[in-house]
Amino acid sequence: MHTPRTIPQTRRTFLMSSLALALIACNKAALKFNSIDITGADYCRDFKLNDSDGKQRQLADFKGRYILVFFGFTQCPDICPTALARAAAVKQKLGKDGDQLQVIFISIDPERDTADLMRAYTQNFDPSFIGLRGTAEQTKQVADEFKVFYAKVATGSSYTMDHSTLSYLFDTTGKIRLAMRHEHSADQFASDIRQLMQHAS
After folding, report:
1. Which range marks the domain in which residue 85 is found?
2. Among 89, 80, 128, 46, which residue's Cα sits nearest to residue 119?
3. Is 12 inside a domain boundary?
4. What is the pLDDT along the chain (201 residues), one digit of tens a residue?
5. Does any domain span residue 188?
6. Is 98 helix (H, G, I), strand (E, B) or coil?
């Protein structure tokens, strides 16, 4: 009588591990982002800043949601309103999944961006958007952590702010995934976020 051959345990374990690695490789290969994939970066690790109610916020507060972070200031003439209007459009394009996206606007101008002004500014684009601010020292610490450039530029009797324009996307575990380019459209942003949602483990 013929007895079926069995695969030794060690070989079976090796085959299963190889298959798992192959599936992971296929999943990674399938992800073709418009944005810059910075998964595993040793920066953008966290922030600790106050919201408009004076409550300190950090990444862990938003676990279970995708987080889109942008640095700017409320008196910004074009870049910041464009970024936030695009973020609002992205939420709409994601449909019912838009509720999984939390948009956070971090002020680089705490001297003028009061808590009330931040609340009014962010909620003008979407009621769910959150504005965060800190002291000048806290602002610099967070900007350095995110490798964000900003500088005060005199304009007559007042000033404006020069600053970086990337948006940063975190996954539901609070890990940084993408640096999203300002020149990209809401459709491109939404496409990248959908990919992460579909490939979430």
Report:
1. 36-198
2. 128
3. no
4. 555 555 555 555 444 444 444 444 444 456 899 999 999 999 999 999 999 999 999 999 999 999 999 999 999 999 999 999 999 999 999 999 999 999 999 999 999 999 999 999 999 999 999 999 999 999 999 999 999 999 999 999 999 999 999 999 999 999 999 999 999 999 999 999 999 999 885
5. yes
6. helix
